[in-house]
Design goal:
Strand order of the largest sheet: 2-1-3-10-4
CATH superfamily of the largest domain: Periplasmic binding protein-like II
Largest sheet: 5 strands, mixed
Oligomer: single chain
Number of strands: 10
Order of helices and strands: EHHEHEHEEEHHEHEHEEHHHHH
Number of helices: 13
């Protein structure tokens, strides 16, 4: 994989709606490891997608006994898009989910009975991604270019807000609608000039597969930010077993902190967990780029998963403006702050 120069990038498909979840289980041994000296509780977690570098803390947290110390025997299963994960938790097929905030808010508004119990990726990884040799370096260079999008996902729905923020309009950019896998292939074949997606996932994979350097234009560089992935739970789980939710949030926060301190070890804990995993170098770059997304200026220096109301309000307002949700409802409609870990 080529060395990434400054400005070169580092997405999974955002919210594929296909059914089912190819389950790759990662289980911590039960019994004897709970903080109170009792047995561990079996807990299931569905990811937003097939495992990639962002998910390293869960595997590392199991390997290092962090979840077991909190009385949790954790099983981690692959997902097939955040929307599907939210719905699975809403159907109580899983105890917890790891899902993108836009998919969470949209599904809650449609009646799915879940809540966020802590967003961990607090800066959106949404970005326009392109090969560095295409002549694109500034937002204005997107004029007349063809960019691959996926209709209905949060990155695409908020793309007009990005264009407006950089002084462009929808008419300035040709948008080609493709599914998640199709976007990557179209970019690598030259069918499109670039794509929009999660820069911390897709970029490293495309660079590795193509042998070409990838660059990006991040939404956050234009002042456009909204929450991304975090933990979700069914409202009945929150009401009936708040102790479990508190332990899960605390263990996840500790696992993310530990993975930041030992990124190579964290990625190594993923080895062999899924046949679709990219190589270790790509996973490491994905996780290192994820670290940059774990806080905003409102939560800098605090434990992973600590959320600020200002960031929730900004997320809700941006997604309302983008039309993903109908109105800017109170934060408590989407997020339960009862389980915030100490800063």
């Amino acid at each position: 994989m080529p060395t990434r120069a400054p400005g070169a990038t580092r997405h999974p498909a955002l919210t594929a709606l296909v059914a089912g979840a190819s389950a790759l289980a990662l289980v911590a041994c039960g019994g004897g490891g709970a903080a109170d000296g009792g047995d561990t509780t079996d807990v299931s977690l569905q990811l937003n997608w097939y495992p990639y570098g962002e998910h390293a803390p869960f595997y590392y947290g199991v390997e290092e006994g962090i979840f077991e110390e909190h009385g949790i025997s954790l099983t981690v299963d692959a997902g097939q898009g955040s929307a599907k994960t939210v719905q699975s938790v809403g159907q109580q097929s899983y105890d917890f989910g790891w899902a993108d905030a836009p998919a969470l808010l949209t599904n809650i508004d449609q009646g799915v009975d879940v809540r966020s119990v802590g967003v961990f990726l607090q800066s959106t990884p949404s970005a326009v991604q392109f090969f560095s040799d295409t002549g694109i370096s500034e937002p204005e260079d997107l004029q007349g270019r063809t960019i691959a999008v996926s209709a209905g996902d949060a990155v695409t729905t908020t793309f007009p807000l990005y264009l407006e923020a950089v002084g462009l309009s929808d008419e300035d950019v040709e948008q080609q609608n493709l599914d998640a896998a199709g976007k990557n292939a179209a970019m690598m074949s030259g069918q499109v000039d670039g794509l929009i997606g999660f820069a911390h996932d897709q970029g490293p994979k495309i660079a590795d597969e193509s042998g070409r350097e990838v660059s990006y234009l991040r939404y956050t560089d234009a002042g456009l930010n909204f929450y991304s992935n975090g933990l979700i739970a069914h409202t009945s789980t929150i009401a009936d077993d708040p102790d479990l939710v508190e332990r899960m949030v605390a263990a996840t926060s500790e696992a993310f902190a530990a993975a930041q301190e030992a990124p190579e070890d964290a990625v190594a804990a993923m080895e062999g967990r899924d046949p679709q995993l990219p190589d270790a170098g790509v996973l490491l770059e994905q996780w290192e780029e994820t670290i940059e997304l774990l806080a905003t200026e409102n939560t800098e220096g605090q434990a992973p998963g600590v959320n600020a109301d200002e960031d929730w309000r900004q997320t809700i307002e941006v997604l309302t403006e983008a039309g993903l949700i109908d109105e800017a409802k109170p934060t408590e409609e989407y997020y339960d702050p009862s389980f915030t870990v100490g800063g």
